[in-house]
Amino acid sequence: MYSPVSGKVIERNAQLEERPELVNEDPYGEGWIVAIEVQDASDLDTLLDAAGYRKFVEQSEGEAR
Fold it and tell me: How do residues 26-54 score in pLDDT, each as one tens digit?
């Protein structure tokens, strides 16, 4: 799995073993994948929030057409 930040996985969502569909059904709630202890907090400065990522995807889709 690609991660935009460096760090250590400190927790994984065991529910996904039985219900992998949670990733798609509830990605911001019960469908989380892992919790990461970030090594370098400055890595977080370049991340997009949900709205920013949605805008990026929409722009990318428009360029692909």
Answer: 998 999 999 999 999 999 999 999 899 99
CATH, domain range 7-64: 2.40.50.100
| Domain locations in the chain as residue ranges | 7-64
- Taking the C-alpha atoms of residue 19 and residue 12, their distance in angstroms, rounded to an integer, is 14
Q: Which amino acid is at 60?
A: S
Average pLDDT, whole number, for the chain?
94
Under a CB-based contact definition with an 8 Å cutoff, are residues 14 and 35 in contact?
no
Q: Kindly give the residue spans of alpha helices, DSSP state H, lying in 1-65.
A: 15-18, 22-25, 50-64
